[in-house]
Amino acid sequence: MSPFARLLRDLRLSRKLRQSELAGLIGYDQTYISALEVDLKGPPTPEFVDRLIGTLHLSAVETSELRRLARASRRKYVIDGEAPEHVFLLLDLLFEKLPEVTPAQSRVIKEVLNMPAPAEELEEQPRRRRRARQTEVHM
Question: 3 preceded by cis ω (within 30°)?
Answer without folding.
Answer: no
